[in-house]
Amino acid sequence: MIKRHPFLSVLCLLVLAIAVWGWNNREHLAAFPGIVGAYSAKEYCSCRYVVGNQADYCAGYVKQYLPLSDFLDDSAHKRVTARGLGSSQTAAWLGQRAGCQLQPQADPLP
Question: pTM score, two decimals?
């Protein structure tokens, strides 16, 4: 088969190598979706409520290559919620000395 279809053989080997790599790093890959929303929520909260910058500046500051599907800035309660890659994360301002902190996520119902 290798002599008759060299490109197909290389493609199959490449797919197999990617599958093995993905299986070995499955825990890290599963954690990745939460990073996008967590980074955006925490950094925006810090930019807006700790440093005191304008909302437009902070929105540009946390912009990423992977877009957010939802973003909510609750200025009355100083809470920021960002949703990206199917994971929603919330950061809240705790005070001048404590700054902003990510809030624990409730376990999803089965």
Answer: 0.73
Q: Rounded to whole angstroms, how far apart are CA atoms 42 and 21?
A: 31
| Measured distance CA(56)–CA(76) in Å, rounded | 17
- The residues pairing with 84 across neighbouring beta strands, listed in sequence order, are 87
Torsion of CA 24, 30, 31, 35, to 10 degrees: 120
Contact between 88 and 94 under an 8 Å Cβ cutoff? The reply is no
Cα–Cα distances in Å, from 50 out to 10, 26, 40, 64?
53, 36, 15, 21
Q: Does the pLDDT at position 54 exceed 80?
A: yes
> How buried is 97 (Cβ within 10 angstroms: 0-12 exposed, 13-18 middle, 19+ buried)?
exposed
